[in-house]
Amino acid sequence: MHSTVNKDTAVKDDELSRLLRDAYSHIRDHRLDEAATALERALEVDFEHPDVLSSLKYVNFWRDRAGTVARLANGFEQGEYLLAQWRLFEGFVERIGAGCEECLYAVRTHVYDRALQFYQSVNDGGTAGDPELLLRIGRCYKGKGDYDTALSFLNKAYGQKKDDPEVLAELADCYAFVNDVQRAKVFFREAFFIGASRIDIDVLESELIRRLVTKVREMGYNDQELLEWIPVYGWLYGVFTVRRELRSIEYGKLKQSIYALERDYSDKRASESLLIPRLVNRYFWLIDHYISSGEDRSRIEEVLLKLRSICPKIYEQYRN
Questions:
Q1: What kind and span of H or E run contains 295?
Q2: Which of 128, 148, 168 is at the close of a domain?
Q3: Which of 112, 128, 144 is the last residue of a domain?
Q4: Is 288 helix (H, G, I), strand (E, B) or coil?
Q5: d(Cα 224, Cα 102) in Å, to the nearest integer?
Q6: Helix (H, G, I), strand (E, B), or coil: what is residue 271?
Q7: In a structure prediction context, what are the per-residue pLDDT tens digits for the chain, which is 320 residues long?
Q8: Helix (H) or strand (E) run with residue 114 in it
Q9: What pTM does this model have?
Q10: Do 58 and 93 form a contact (C-beta atoms < 8 A)?
Q11: Are 169 and 163 in contact (CB under 8 A)?
């Protein structure tokens, strides 16, 4: 009797495993209807299996959006829609609780591969040099886990938009994934210096930046404040510590930026919650420039006095 029961259980488990493998293969091949059919059959085998239940919810999420994708006018819009929906999907996964990692990987492959196909259809139309498109193609390759190809496209975008914080941040993220930590730190720091408010931290996935974001968020910062404080704590926590001497034009712009922010801070022209981290970030850059260029210590102390005046807490952390 026990032998028969064990045999039936083994047959059931084998059938369930086969159906799940088929479903995940269909997802990766962009055949969501076939994936749903396989999962519905798996549900008949075991209607309480957690992997089957969560996987079917994942597939139906994307099936519900297939019609919208088809109705969009061009490949660029289709790619943008898919990547926007991926963010909603991540929230959906969190809400329904623990799911199936193998299915999540299959869905991720499906979404980023489809988005890549859509962007490439635009690229084939003669816009190979468009940095916005190159950025998105690089992001899709990153999402698929092909970091070397992602870096190739992102570096092409960087060649045309060297001062774009979004491109710089994506480059940094990819370099972190290939364990080129030095370059990752350089590009992250440059990105958040040039324009923290223009960086979409939700698309950055490397542990290097995610740990920092989590720490800063745990301090109570959110939204715009979070973005502005990231480079400050990135420096203090050793993430954004790569120093470099600024070129003359960069030094001039930095001094002008500091002067304008100090004036706004003094005249209370804007919210201190944003002005203070922006100023602190620039003070750190100025101090690093002075150290790299061998300036007299008195100039560094002058900046530190300003830092202590506007933010004693950060000053103490810097000194310690």
A1: none
A2: 128
A3: 128
A4: helix
A5: 35
A6: coil
A7: 455 545 556 677 788 889 999 999 999 999 999 999 999 999 998 888 889 999 999 999 999 999 999 999 899 999 999 999 999 999 999 898 767 899 999 999 999 999 999 999 987 655 558 999 999 999 999 999 999 999 999 999 999 999 999 999 999 999 999 999 999 999 999 999 999 999 999 999 999 999 999 999 999 998 899 999 999 999 999 999 887 888 999 999 999 999 999 999 988 777 888 999 999 999 999 999 999 988 999 999 999 999 999 999 999 999 88
A8: helix 101-123
A9: 0.89
A10: yes
A11: no
- CA distances 88 to 25, 84, 92, 143, 280, Å, are 23, 7, 6, 16, 34
With residue 223 as reference, give the H or E element that holds it: helix 223-236
Domain membership of residue 76 as a residue range: 1-128
Tokens of 315: 């000053």
Contact, 109 vs 28, CB < 8 A? yes
DSSP 86: H
Whole-angstrom distance, CA of residue 212 vs CA of residue 192: 13
- 54 within a domain of the structure (yes/no): yes
What distance in Å separates the CA atoms of residue 273 and residue 84, rounded to the nearest whole number? 29
Count of domains observed in the chain: 2
Question: 134 with 157: CB under 8 angstroms?
Answer: yes
* In a domain? residue 73: yes
Tell me how many degrees the CA angle 19-87-169 measures, rounded to the nearest 5: 120
d(CA 277, CA 69): 40
CA distance 65 to 84: 12
